[in-house]
Amino acid sequence: MASVSNVWAIGNGISRQNFQLKKIQDWTIGCNAIHRDHRVNEIIAVDRRMVNEIMGNEEYAGVPIYTRASWMTFFKDCPQICTVPDLPYLGHNKHDKPDHWNSGPYAVLLAVLQQPQTVNLLGFDLYGIGKTYNNLYMNTPNYGKVGDRPVGHSFWVVQLAKIFELNTSIEFIQWQQSNWQIPFQWKSFKNLTIRNIPV
Description:
The chain has an eight-stranded parallel sheet, with helices on both faces. It has about 200 residues and is of the alpha/beta class. The chain has three helices and eight strands, in the order βββαββαβαββ. It starts with 5 loop residues before the first strand and ends with a strand. The protein has helices spanning about 50-55, 105-110, 155-165; strands at about 5-10, 25-30, 40-45, 65, 80-85, 120, 170-175, 190-195. The radius of gyration is 16 Å and the shape is globular.
């Protein structure tokens, strides 16, 4: 597609539960089970079971679904399935390896490839609530349960920081609740703004 000026990468953190996604008029890239409630322009699911679930949603016929290259043998006859973008850098740590990037960071990476002026991050909470799981779709198929330990966020913090670092001409806006704590690794980025989430 042609480049757009404003892109939304939409995760599934609890923070976005009262946000009306239909208000967004810009290009949208969503993650995983967002397909159950809203139609985005592109969707990422690095879990094969979730890809199958999305493909079963008739509203998503023709919507590009991005997943890992390792799953493509299962979807070779499905033209709407695409591989996630290559990482824009080489690194030697575990968090630098493509197999350790999840849907959220890949959604933001796909957003910057549109060469927009602004990338909005919505529902990228990073942290659990206290010491428990934090996802709008918990207790549903392909997700953890209420009370489960949260998914570790350390890789997401570093991976997103790398995207901010490599795209200084793009303004990143992290939409969050007022009490959300910015990771210390993000505090030096002049192209990152934290704003209160609209409802």
